[in-house]
Automatic annotation (TrEMBL):
Coiled-coil intervals: none
Residue sites binding 7,8-didemethyl-8-hydroxy-5-deazariboflavin per the record: 50
Cited InterPro entries: CofD, CofD-like_dom_sf, FbiA/CofD
Lineage: Bacteria, Bacillati, Actinomycetota, Actinomycetes, Kitasatosporales
Family per similarity comment: Belongs to the CofD family.
EC number, UniProt record: 2.7.8.28
Enzymatic reactions: enolpyruvoyl-2-diphospho-5'-guanosine + 7,8-didemethyl-8-hydroxy-5-deazariboflavin = dehydro coenzyme F420-0 + GMP + H(+)
Keyword Transferase: yes
General function of this protein: Catalyzes the transfer of the phosphoenolpyruvate moiety from enoylpyruvoyl-2-diphospho-5'-guanosine (EPPG) to 7,8-didemethyl-8-hydroxy-5-deazariboflavin (FO) with the formation of dehydro coenzyme F420-0 and GMP.
Gene: cofD
Keywords on record: Magnesium, Transferase
Name of this protein: Phosphoenolpyruvate transferase
Superkingdom of origin: Bacteria
Quaternary data: Homodimer.
UniProt keyword Transferase, yes or no: yes
Length: 319
């Protein structure tokens, strides 16, 4: 079975680990969000691609869900000693190697998709990881600080500001000129099922869908598209998805996120058992819906969620 997953950061990566256990023989292609990418110290950092690569490759810092395990920060300390900023983004020594190799290859003219494939040769994540685009897309957030309105890079909003200020708009800068990376549209066209994991529906899945051609390819794929709600009990399971949902005028509920994606895109939607009351509302929106446990408390729980999503997809296919 060929499965395509649109993945963002931590939630998407953890879900993928469960999916691999639930469908060990499946051929999984991950279309990774690159809107979180940031250029620091002359290096290109790809947080969502790295989180998937490290999580599935066994190098992730498990508690954080980002960065490397067994990390040290000597380089970060030395940079700070020179007053070379920014200091608010925690790049570890091991992680720096990934960004150096990536930047070297990009400087040599390799596209991000080829670079990602080369990095995955080391990590062997067990999925094909393709960036949504080889073109530069960076998510910026319009905020108001001390009465002054300005746009900040997503990472500054997320990490330095801890999403503590109101987000007035979330803009994937460059998305409208970006092209899907080689292999993205082909993977969608040959998929048997397409999954939206519990990633951030605005800055992760939403950014991937903002690359012209991707949303249309999924809508026209003619195979079941099933999503899992990142919102449980009107709050994001992790992160601050509710802040960016508000910025795009979507209430922070499992039903509103399904409606935000729309029945033109989504065929099925899993909500957590605490949100069982919204199954009817989602169904009325033309999206088949089921309430199942959605907390990724451990690998078995996550694998069960993945099995539920694949089962719902088969129900959709047979409908
Ligand atoms: N998140 C934080 O909250 N604090 C950090 O210092 C931080 C550093 C960092 C370094 C590399 C990397 O790949 C991710 C990092 N993240 C950090 C997480 C990152 O902001 C998020 O993983 C994604 O951008 C959101 O999906």
């Amino acid at each position: 079975m060929r499965i395509v997953v649109l993945a963002g950061g931590i939630g998407g990566a953890r879900f993928l680990r469960g999916l691999q256990q639930a469908a060990p023989d499946a051929d999984i292609t991950v279309i990774g969000n690159t809107g979180d990418d940031i250029h620091l110290f002359g290096l290109k950092v790809c947080p969502d691609l790295d989180t998937v690569m490290y999580t599935l490759g066994g190098g992730i810092n498990e508690e954080q869900g980002w960065g490397r395990a067994d990390e040290t920060f000597h380089l970060k300390e030395e940079l700070a000693a020179y007053g070379a900023g920014p200091s608010w983004f925690g790049l570890g020594d091991r992680d720096f190697a990934t960004h150096i190799v990536r930047t070297q290859m990009l400087s040599a003219g390799y596209p991000l998709s080829a670079v990602t494939e080369a990095l995955c040769d080391r990590w062997k994540p067990g999925v094909r990881l393709i960036p949504m685009s080889d073109d530069r897309v960076e998510t910026h957030v319009a905020v108001e600080i001390d009465g002054e309105r300005k746009a900040v890079h997503f990472q500054e909003y997320w990490v330095r500001l801890r999403a503590s200020v109101e987000a007035h708009a979330v803009v994937p800068v460059g998305a409208d000129q970006a092209k899907p990376a080689p292999g993205v549209l082909e993977a969608i066209a040959s998929a048997d099922v397409i999954l939206f994991p519990p990633s951030n529906p605005v800055v992760s899945v939403g950014t991937i869908l903002a690359v012209p051609g991707i949303r249309e390819a999924i809508a026209d794929a003619g195979v079941p598209v099933v999503g899992l709600s990142p919102i449980v009990g009107d709050a994001p399971v992790r992160g601050m998805a509710d802040k960016v949902l508000a910025a795009v005028g979507v209430e922070s509920t499992a039903a509103a996120v399904a409606e935000h994606y729309g029945s033109g895109l989504l065929d099925g939607w899993l909500v957590d058992t605490v949100d069982a009351a919204v199954v009817e509302r989602v169904t009325e929106a033309g999206i088949r819906c089921r309430a199942v446990p959605l907390m990724m408390t451990d690998l078995d729980a996550t694998a069960e969620m993945a099995r539920e999503a694949l089962t719902l997809a088969e129900e959709v296919r047979g409908a």
